Amino acid sequence: MAKHRMNKAGILTLALALTLLLAACGGQSAPAANSSAAQSEAAAAQTPTAQNQTPAQPDAAPAENAAAAPKHLNAAIYWSAATLDPAVDYDGWTTCRAGITETLVMVDENLELVPLLSDTWEQTDETTWVMHIRDGVTFHNGKSVDAAAVKACFERTMEMQDRAVTACKIDSIEADGQSLTIKTSEPFGAFLANLSEPLYSVIDVDAGTDPATAPVATGPFMVTGFKAEDVIELAAYPGYWNGPSDLDTVTVKTITDNSTRAMALQSGEIDIAQRVNNNDIDILRADPNYAVYETAGTRIQVLILNHANEFLSDYNVRKALECSLNYEALVKIMGGSYTLAGAPYPSSAPYGYDQLDVQHYDAAQAKSLLAEAGWADSDGNGYVEKNGKELSLTLTYNDAAISAAMEAVQAMAGAVGIRVNLDLRDSTGDIDSTRDFEMLVRNWQSLSTGDPQWLLDTMYKSGAMTNLGSYSNLELDKICDELSNAFDFASRQKLTVEAEKIILADCVNINLFGQNNYVIASAKVENVKPFPIDYYFIDNTTSITG
Amino acid sequence: MKPYIRKALRSPQFLLFFTLAAALILIPVCAPWIAPNDPIENDYENLMLLHSEKYPLGTDQIGRCILSRLIWGGRTSLLIVFVVIVIAAAAGIFLGILSGYCGGWIDMLITRFTDIAVAVPETVFVIALVSVLGSSLGHTILAMSLVGWTEYCRVTRALVLSLKQNAYVEEARLGGMNEVQIIFRMILPNVIPYLLVNIAQDVGAKLLTLSGLSLLGLASQPPTPEWGYMLSEGRRFIQSDPHLIIYPGMTIVLNVIVFNLLGDSLRDILDPRFTRKRREWRKLKQWQSIE
Amino acid sequence: MKKYVTRRVLFVFPIMLVLSFFTFALSYLSPSDPVTLKYSRLGVTPDMEMIEAAKEELGLNDPFLVQYGRWLGRVLRGDLGESYKYGTSVWATLTEHIPNTLILTAATLLLTVVLAVPLGILSAVCQNRPVDYLIRFVSFFGVSMPSFWVGALLMYAFGVKLKLLPVMGDGDLRHLILPAVTLSIWMASLYVRRVRGSMLEEMNRDYLTGGLARGLSRSRIIFTQILPNSLLSVITMFGMSIGSLMGGATIIETIFEWQGVGKMAIDAISVKDYPVIQGYILWMAIIYVLINLVVDLLYRFLDPRIRLEGGGA
After folding, report:
1. Which of B66, B197, B204, C289 could be B256's S-S partner, Cβ–Cβ 3.0 to 4.6 Å?
2. The model's pTM
């Protein structure tokens, strides 16, 4: 009897397993459910998947299809905002992505500074800038934008956030009609570029609404609903100065999980998204229903070393760590759209990557550097010690998507005798104030605002707010000061390369890998622009067919 | 105790699942001898292999042998689960006996406390405690034990209450046994077999909880292999390399099923009332069919 | 009866005291303090003086019990405070997330009942026949799979491959399907086993033999006597399951980006947003008391044995 039962159970197991298998494989051969295949293939053929599309036509007229059905776009962003107030935290980056707010100037697809709300400007002396505010720009409530409105907004932002004061070194602002005069506290070469940081988004501070949930700004889309860290509902602003969007409404959804974001694209819930897992990109690229827009990115995953740490204060230890890492293997682990990043700025940026002695893998050198500094494996456990202390460092990071690479870093450093403990946290934000860390991975926007000085001033200069590793080199500080006084590109470029050389020679931090920027959209989405800087995403030309 | 063991040895079901469970425990224990590769050795030339002679179940995202990681992973996963269960069961039994045996206000207090502890959502509690105490495996185990004892306490209390009424406990007391002796000689030996059912089933439940906690990064320290961690890491590759999520998932399911079945077969052995009634029911049905 | 209800409702206070004490201890022991947290959100690195001033203002320098008492007082007046992270009231945060959790709970329960009760009955009635084996086998699988594994596989199969269903929460009813199905696969499997178990136990009672002897048909006995009695014993467990769902299915809410209280609690914990965590605990306490009350009352109302034994107990 028992035997008989077992057989039945066995058959059932088999049947169930087969059913599951069929269910899992069945989808592969099934045609795409929601669109006519021929049409989408044609659309895909037209959609460029290569780098650098033609630049946007600033005065592109909106399509004249008033009678057509309402057009709706579902977009996904990968980081969430607690508020929509550009003056709070980095929430301006979100409003900029969503096309709600705009700055006076912006950085375009070619990393060049172009006019936005300000159409012309002039530097009248070393510390004075006169920005002309474009005529005919209106806030979402119809009020026209003049210099006084911008002044009021900037003053509020500066009062609320220190970063707004230091980033542009603004001393005073004066408004006269459409002309805005900003005086900096000292000569500052990066002024104009830094003005493109979304923190300096212009909103109507007298609109009577709470900017945290309903900012009244100038972008192509206005906010109709907002749930913190969840969803932003938008409607096209018909009075947009650069030609209103062809879309009627947009939903910007926060999806923090990379796999979920990719699946949401594939299931059709989302039409356009920034950033998905690498292995998923290849799948999407092969699928004619999607287009992958890629451009050399400016983000670099940096391993910040704490120079106040007893071990890391030693150059040999830092350099040994740098040499222990097999950067090519790391890039391979991360996958296709990641790149080598041997220096503070990516090789795609014009800051002398080829002239530099970039980071490289050399395990033998790493070992000899440690031996030279007196580290030896005396207890035979594979890790080196000195004065009875093991060389053990904790690596803190907060992005589960890089876990595999971090485990590889752990293994690579371990191979030369450095013990690395991994510490994955939900958030590492509190480290900004506590500075309680040994090694910390941050995903840095190396060319935020399109100018190199931002990175040097905020991450490497002595005493800078986000110089978390407390690195200090007076020579580098001097270069930062000189950069402030350099206003032409050639001399800024030269100074930047010099700064890079110092940073690499001191082995300040370790640049793990660079990251290309990509936008993935359904083939139905038109005019997608992959910006090298990821706080630009959708704009007034973004549209969708049928 | 002895009659149970004799009965267990006569139950083919129990013997089968016991053997399977023992095998599942022995595999990780013998990991150094049976794992084909070093579970933390990276082969950067062979990332995400599906299968090869050297790597029977392929390699993961940083070129480590998946089969070896599954075999070694059992050490971490099962050890965590067993430690949690031992702590939770010990605490639960202690409180249960205290509550059931002493009665009165102690019983009231412990029962109310148990009621509250049952209401605490496990995952949220573990995350909260770990965020305060700091992220470490020890703290995760502590937190899981702190919410895991309630069922043991309830079952023990109920058993003690029914045993207390039993005539032979009264006889023992009259015969000069003190309270401690009664607890250790008469109560505990009768309570523990029943708790074995709970323990076996708890292994499955805790394995599932642990895999959820791994998703939130609370279970193991890399590079130590652990099933839940492998599963949560593999989730990112579900489209491109599904074997990274399928194998650890199957491993967890297999373990949970075997320990659950072991628990079920144990209960059948221990619950004479149930089996007797089942026999009656069968008789009843015979009678019915005759009709 | 009235007395009983009052006692149960009054019992919420000691629970609240214990739980709120616990939360307070948590925030008290926490390594990072709310002031630095508040400042870092505004992009300011505060110096010691600023921190001290802000701490004084928020009353964070007072002794533990004083702070605790003050908090309790505010809560009793209905003021839950402001979220450190969003700057909005905790009340608003809670009311935004609770409905989502309630919807998910309701859908999961509905699916669970629809699946588990008939299958459980079928399994018990056809004990040891092929149907029983099939149901038991499938339900065994159901309770043995890690929920997020199931969730991920379902997302892949129905969202990506078949493109039938949306993979994440929020929006119309279709978005509810995958998270609810994922949860109810596990729950329904659990309850199939429980319904079956308690049915079998009831079937062994003497009244069945009595009924048969009195000439009642077997199906009549099953549906009029065995079923109600066996479901009764499942109700208590069901209450606990409802409670745990209403506390938020943390993992499932997270992977499906479902904006429920479970996800809210996890997010709040990760940024140490204590007012929101306290709000969550309050919610848990309320659920706990309500569910227990309802289950107890239902039990008393439905079970003739208890009703007969008298009102006092």
Report:
1. B204
2. 0.83
